[in-house]
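One thing: could you explain this record?
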Amino acid sequence: MQIISTAEQATLKIGKALAKKLKKGDIVCLFGQLGSGKTVLAKGIASGLGIDKKNIISPTFVLIREYKKARLPFYHFDLYRLVNLREILALGYEEYLEAGGLVLIEWADRLKGYLPQEYIKIELIIKNEKKRLLKFSAYGRRYKDLLKAFMQDITKNSRL
């Protein structure tokens, strides 16, 4: 499944729409090069959970930020500066996956063999200065159903 975003505002709206479908325990893994819009999408998802998008900053230097005053606890990982996988394991990465909140991981490719078995994969690809291609993949039955419902909503509301 793919969506073209033609502006930052559209990427925020896509994230907000996806957040409406997310539940406790869900995992969203973001892939894409620097500047592809991963943090913008994370802000949209957070906004959809009731978190002011202005409060969402990339946790690049601390690896994770927790936001608990929302519809769901939101655990925002940014693994850009991850040097060694032991760092993420020492943070209690696996415990966050089972903590009953929404886990969003930027630079999920850094996890290699530690990617969860079931999750939503979103790859963000730069097409030009403003245009991004968002490619959605589902790993696991729950996520296949979620993406199907999400895409139905998106096609009904094509003003993204």
